[in-house]
Amino acid sequence: MTQTLKQRLANKEALVGTFVKTPSMMLAEVLSRTNMDLVCLDAEHSPFDRKDIDANIFAYRAGNMPVLVRVPSAAPSQLLNALDCGATGVVVPHVDSLAKAVDIAKVCQYGDGGRGYAGSTRAANYAGNTVAENLQHAANNTVVIAQIEDLAAFDEIEEIAAVDGIDCLFIGMMDLTVALGETSPRAPAVVELAERVCGAAKKTGKAVGIFVPSADDVSFWVERGVRLFLMSSDHSFIKQGANSLVEDVSKHF
């Protein structure tokens, strides 16, 4: 039986995916046919509206590709929309306190004061599942990733990591870089904070993920417990492919 993304995170398996910046259902269909373990729609920094999120999730699900949505904010309506559309899970930016982590974990699951229930959504198989089946599926499959990218988060980083319902901590290297007044994610001060996130995740048994600028950085972070790598983007793939084509053809002139 194929393991879910939630199980693979819990088992600390190596996972490689990318951020998707283009709200294109056709591009989603293409990427779903690659060997990546997952993708993350970047609705925080790219123009994904509700219909775009819905259409792209449809395409990735059709291709059996786990799909996360990095939501614009931790607002319950943003989390609910992504999950009702059938996202495998959410990446929530700027989780900078224990209180926010607790709220996010609650809102992403059904229960008193939690995720609003609708049995007619894609996530609920368009009324094809019973209430009990929907509750169980959400509990067993919904992935909640807290993005750590603010200096304030480090006042409670171990408490945030320990929150039940948070599956993974994702290190926002670039925001930490800017917050520290640095210009490179390889700056010692940035690396030190990222290592603190890894330590908190290890202590609480949580998975940890990261974005790094190059595959050359991967080994360093694997040694520190990182197993989820969301790297590059569809934009980068297009630019790299185009530039590579020009370089290869130009050799013959």
UniProtKB/TrEMBL annotation:
Belongs to the HpcH/HpaI aldolase family. The keyword Metal-binding applies. It comes from the Bacteria. The lineage of its organism: Bacteria, Pseudomonadati, Pseudomonadota, Gammaproteobacteria, Cellvibrionales. The keyword Lyase applies. This is 2-keto-3-deoxy-L-rhamnonate aldolase RhmA. Residues 17-228 form the HpcH/HpaI aldolase/citrate lyase domain. GO terms for molecular function: aldehyde-lyase activity; metal ion binding. One of its GO terms (cellular component) is cytoplasm. Keywords: Lyase, Metal-binding. It comes from Umboniibacter marinipuniceus.
